[in-house]
Write a structure and sequence with these properties.
This protein is of the alpha+beta class and 115 residues long. It has one domain: Aspartate Aminotransferase, domain 1. It has four helices and six strands. Helix 1 runs parallel beside helix 3.
Protein backbone atom coordinates (compact mmCIF):
# COMPACT_ATOMS: atom_id res chain seq x y z
CA UNK A 1 0.00 0.00 0.00
CA UNK A 2 1.28 3.45 -0.84
CA UNK A 3 1.07 6.37 1.59
CA UNK A 4 -1.32 8.13 -0.80
CA UNK A 5 -3.61 5.09 -0.96
CA UNK A 6 -3.57 4.86 2.84
CA UNK A 7 -4.50 8.51 3.22
CA UNK A 8 -7.30 8.21 0.67
CA UNK A 9 -8.70 5.09 2.38
CA UNK A 10 -8.46 6.51 5.91
CA UNK A 11 -10.07 9.83 5.03
CA UNK A 12 -12.98 8.18 3.18
CA UNK A 13 -14.77 7.37 6.46
CA UNK A 14 -17.38 9.74 7.93
CA UNK A 15 -15.81 12.33 10.22
CA UNK A 16 -12.25 11.18 9.51
CA UNK A 17 -9.51 13.81 9.62
CA UNK A 18 -5.74 13.94 9.29
CA UNK A 19 -3.59 15.69 11.85
CA UNK A 20 0.16 15.92 12.33
CA UNK A 21 1.35 15.12 15.86
CA UNK A 22 4.60 14.47 17.66
CA UNK A 23 6.74 16.17 15.05
CA UNK A 24 5.71 14.59 11.77
CA UNK A 25 3.52 11.57 12.56
CA UNK A 26 0.39 11.39 10.39
CA UNK A 27 -2.58 10.58 12.63
CA UNK A 28 -6.02 9.69 11.32
CA UNK A 29 -8.77 10.65 13.74
CA UNK A 30 -12.53 10.59 14.16
CA UNK A 31 -14.03 12.96 16.69
CA UNK A 32 -10.51 13.92 17.77
CA UNK A 33 -9.61 10.31 18.66
CA UNK A 34 -6.96 8.40 16.71
CA UNK A 35 -7.82 5.24 14.84
CA UNK A 36 -4.62 4.91 12.76
CA UNK A 37 -1.21 6.55 12.41
CA UNK A 38 2.02 6.40 10.42
CA UNK A 39 5.46 7.84 10.93
CA UNK A 40 6.31 10.95 8.92
CA UNK A 41 7.76 8.94 6.04
CA UNK A 42 4.75 6.57 6.10
CA UNK A 43 6.96 3.51 6.28
CA UNK A 44 5.01 1.87 9.09
CA UNK A 45 1.35 1.77 10.10
CA UNK A 46 -0.24 1.54 13.53
CA UNK A 47 -3.95 1.09 14.14
CA UNK A 48 -6.61 0.02 16.60
CA UNK A 49 -7.81 -3.57 16.11
CA UNK A 50 -10.23 -5.95 17.79
CA UNK A 51 -9.03 -8.19 20.60
CA UNK A 52 -9.11 -11.22 18.30
CA UNK A 53 -7.21 -9.44 15.51
CA UNK A 54 -4.62 -8.22 18.03
CA UNK A 55 -3.91 -11.79 19.14
CA UNK A 56 -3.91 -13.21 15.61
CA UNK A 57 -1.68 -10.50 14.10
CA UNK A 58 0.86 -10.43 16.92
CA UNK A 59 1.04 -14.20 17.46
CA UNK A 60 1.62 -14.87 13.75
CA UNK A 61 4.26 -12.14 13.53
CA UNK A 62 2.42 -10.13 10.87
CA UNK A 63 2.40 -7.17 13.26
CA UNK A 64 3.80 -6.31 16.63
CA UNK A 65 2.15 -4.62 19.60
CA UNK A 66 2.31 -0.89 18.96
CA UNK A 67 4.68 1.03 21.23
CA UNK A 68 2.83 2.93 23.98
CA UNK A 69 -0.58 1.71 22.76
CA UNK A 70 -0.53 -2.09 22.88
CA UNK A 71 -2.63 -2.09 26.05
CA UNK A 72 -5.37 -0.42 23.99
CA UNK A 73 -5.13 -3.19 21.34
CA UNK A 74 -3.10 -1.27 18.78
CA UNK A 75 -0.75 -3.07 16.41
CA UNK A 76 2.13 -1.82 14.27
CA UNK A 77 3.02 -3.05 10.82
CA UNK A 78 6.67 -2.33 10.09
CA UNK A 79 6.39 -2.07 6.29
CA UNK A 80 3.37 -0.25 4.87
CA UNK A 81 4.51 -0.90 1.29
CA UNK A 82 4.21 -4.67 1.75
CA UNK A 83 0.58 -4.57 2.87
CA UNK A 84 -2.40 -5.36 0.64
CA UNK A 85 -4.65 -2.35 -0.08
CA UNK A 86 -7.94 -4.24 0.38
CA UNK A 87 -6.81 -5.84 3.63
CA UNK A 88 -5.63 -2.52 5.07
CA UNK A 89 -8.91 -0.94 3.96
CA UNK A 90 -10.84 -3.53 5.96
CA UNK A 91 -8.63 -3.01 9.01
CA UNK A 92 -9.04 0.77 8.75
CA UNK A 93 -12.82 0.41 8.55
CA UNK A 94 -12.81 -1.68 11.72
CA UNK A 95 -10.42 0.73 13.47
CA UNK A 96 -12.64 3.68 12.56
CA UNK A 97 -15.76 1.85 13.78
CA UNK A 98 -14.13 0.82 17.07
CA UNK A 99 -13.06 4.36 17.88
CA UNK A 100 -16.24 6.05 16.61
CA UNK A 101 -18.39 3.71 18.73
CA UNK A 102 -16.77 5.13 21.89
CA UNK A 103 -17.66 8.74 21.03
CA UNK A 104 -20.63 10.34 22.79
CA UNK A 105 -23.96 9.92 20.97
CA UNK A 106 -24.31 13.65 20.26
CA UNK A 107 -20.81 13.82 18.78
CA UNK A 108 -21.42 10.75 16.60
CA UNK A 109 -24.65 12.32 15.30
CA UNK A 110 -22.81 15.57 14.54
CA UNK A 111 -20.22 13.67 12.51
CA UNK A 112 -22.87 11.83 10.51
CA UNK A 113 -22.16 8.50 12.17
CA UNK A 114 -24.79 5.95 13.17
CA UNK A 115 -26.10 6.77 16.62
Amino acid sequence: MTPAALEKAALAFPGAELSIKWGDDRCYTVGGKMFAATDGAATNLSMKVTDIAFEALTETGRARPAPYAARFKWVMFEDLASLDDAEVGDWLKTAHQLVAAKLPRKQRAGLGLAV
